[in-house]
Design goal:
The protein has 623 residues and is of the alpha+beta class. Helix content is 39%, strand content 15%. The chain is globular and about 80 Å long.
Length: 623
């Protein structure tokens, strides 16, 4: 929907104290209106606090100027800046009108959120169905409320310094830059991201998904959790069938199709995006957008033909894009300029190109399929881990250790992941954490310098904080994996990718699978409805029968793959080595042995990717 930025101080001082952020740096997030309001410019400036609120608007709902932000209440006491969409704003608005609130816009969800904050304070969060990051200001009480949605679909960064709270949708809006957060760099290499509260800038924090904070008269922010994915699963997997979940999925898509601009869908040709497209196409003709590599890339199988099959089945206005490895690298270089902290997700470039194509075709909102794998158990290795844990639970630990001491005969070559899980079990650790497993694919001592490893924090500490949360107390392994990824990998990797790439093209991406009601219900589905001999994501596949061709439902899960073996081949590795080594000259991350491998161009493909992504970001934003 937009970009937000601002600053708040409870101290007296010059207005320049509040000039800590610049909304113009986020203008691409909201090209329809760029507005800044200062409390000092009001007819009656507040006494309790001073503030500067700024908003870059991408007009999607209630396109009138009256719906612009920053927005105030009718009496001028309350103000808000808000990024996102409240999908259930209409019934909340009706309730607020019955309670006596007066509305000045026709159907702005921003005004509904503003009045909900006035009426219920922090309690309004439980009523909201949507994606959001906002700051609400009560000028008389000297109080602010800052909140981020349950799934972390919308970003929120903040800095607390010298009694001033500064915040923004992206770090690039902050005018001052802090030191590189070296202690968090190992997080990046383990998870291809940094955990939920930290950033690459040591002076900037992220408000984690499903967290909020309230400040009164200048107390330092202390974020608090206000929702958990497993909070409705206290009685375990107690649903009899998947009907309620699938009904909620249909409702979520309908709610997220509501807009005053055209809504389309990203369509990979996989099950998740195809189901969303099929539901979105009920009763209307939609635009769909797909991307893939040319067929001449060695070792790559394009999914474009599957997307085209779905598009023909739905009679959508289909817009496929075909790219070469060279065009992919060119797009990724643009991505690294957009990202002000690196996300080592190789699909960013294609998503940027898709979003730009959607915008060029007059589509301002696109539905996406993120979240389905996490709630319906779509990852094969999660299913495998579940099977291994059940097996290990029936074996004495001494027997497992003896089997491993023999070299895991018959298993080591066929199932290396299983052996790694068995080793962790033998050591008394959790066998698996989540989507990006917290385990370097290589020996850290071989990759990194002793000095860097000594400075780096333990990445498992962040993981354990999620897995050992009280809400996970009675959860089974697959519930824990789902909850972990919903709070960790999704908001700061997959959803961060979707937000940055779509907003860079002035397109809003929406994610129906992450309607919180659907997530809560899915956590209660019996395992027999999710995984079994027939594979994974069984409930969604059953639902898709009749919606989609069987060829789409029955084909193996592939995911959107990037042929990194070809994109970052030996030739390209040699071309990029100076970039990576120059970064290491500044950061001193790598061991001498790994530096030699890089210099010789022997690190290629997926093995090179996280280092290439970090170095590309570094050369643009930090060198």
């Amino acid at each position: 929907m937009c970009g937000i930025a601002g600053s708040v101080s409870w101290r007296s001082g010059p207005e320049a104290d509040l000039d800590t952020v610049d909304i113009a740096r986020l203008a691409y997030r909201g090209p329809d209106a760029l507005i800044t309001v200062r409390s000092a410019e009001l007819p009656a400036p507040p006494v309790a606090l001073r503030w500067k609120l700024a908003h870059a608007r991408l007009s999607i709902l209630d396109l009138a100027d009256a719906a612009n932000q920053p927005m105030s209440s009718a009496d001028g006491r309350y103000w808000i800046v808000f990024n996102g969409e409240i999908y259930n704003h209409a019934p909340i608005r009706a309730e607020l009108i019955r309670l006596g609130h007066v509305f000045r816009t026709d159907h702005s969800d921003t005004e509904t959120l503003l009045n909900a904050c006035v009426q219920w304070g922090r309690g309004c969060l439980d009523r909201l169905n949507g994606m959001f990051a906002f700051v609400f200001v009560d000028q008389v009480a000297g109080r602010i409320l800052a909140a981020r949605d349950r799934m972390g679909i919308k970003p929120f960064y903040y800095r607390w310094a010298d009694g001033v709270l500064s915040f923004a949708s992206e770090p690039k809006a902050f005018l001052q830059r802090g030191e590189v957060n070296r202690s968090a760099l190992l997080d990046y290499f383990n998870f291809l991201q940094i955990e939920g509260a930290s950033t690459f800038d040591a002076s900037i924090r992220k408000l984690p998904a499903a967290h909020c904070f309230e400040l009164v008269r200048g107390a330092e922010p202390v974020p608090e959790r206000w929702w958990h994915p497993l909070q409705a699963a206290a009685h375990g997997r107690d649903l009899a069938d998947a009907d309620a979940c699938m009904g909620l999925l249909q409702e979520a898509v309908e709610l997220q199709m509501v807009a005053d601009v055209e809504v389309g869908t990203y369509l990979s040709g996989g099950l998740d995006s195809s189901v969303v497209a099929a539901l979105a196409a009920r009763g209307r003709r939609i635009s769909t957008f797909s991307i893939g590599f040319t067929d001449d890339v060695p070792g790559y199988a394009s999914e474009l033909r599957h997307a085209e099959l779905v598009a023909r089945h739905l009679d959508s206005r289909h817009h496929p894009i075909t790219i070469t490895p060279q065009e992919y690298l060119a797009a990724q270089q643009r991505v690294f300029r957009i990202l002000d902290e690196p996300i080592a997700n190789e699909a960013c470039g294609p998503l940027l190109l898709l979003s730009e194509k959607a915008r060029a075709e007059g589509v301002t909102v696109c539905l996406s399929g993120e979240g389905s794998d996490e709630i319906f158990i779509g990852y094969r290795h999660w299913h495998d881990a579940h099977r291994v844990q059940r097996m290990l639970g029936a074996l004495p630990r001494a027997g497992v250790k003896a089997f491993l001491a023999l070299g895991a005969p018959g298993l080591a070559a066929r199932k290396p992941d299983w052996v790694a899980w068995m080793k962790r079990h033998a050591e008394g650790r959790r066998i698996i954490w989540g989507g990006n497993d917290a385990l370097l694919r290589e020996d850290p001592d071989a990759l990194f310098s002793p000095a860097f490893l000594a400075d780096a924090r333990d990445p498992y500490a962040a993981v354990a904080a999620h897995c050992d949360a009280p809400a996970c107390g009675s959860a089974d392994l697959l519930q824990r994996l789902s909850a972990f990824d919903l709070q960790f990998r999704l908001p700061e990797n997959l959803l961060a990718r979707v937000d940055r790439m779509s907003m860079a093209a002035s397109v809003e991406a929406r994610v129906p699978y992450l309607d919180h009601r659907l997530v809560e219900q899915a956590m209660r589905l019996p395992l027999r409805l999710l995984v079994g001999k027939a594979g994974e994501k069984l409930a969604l596949k059953r639902f898709a029968r009749g919606l989609l061709p069987d060829a789409i439902i029955d084909r193996p899960k592939v995911g959107f793959t990037i042929p990194l073996h070809e994109v970052l081949n030996a030739r390209e590795a040699l071309a990029q080595r100076h970039l990576i080594l120059a970064m290491d000259d500044a950061l001193r991350l790598y061991s001498p042995g790994f530096r030699k491998e890089l210099a010789a161009g022997r690190v290629t493909g997926m093995r090179l990717w996280p280092h290439y992504a970090l170095a590309s970001w570094w050369s643009i934003h930090r060198a």
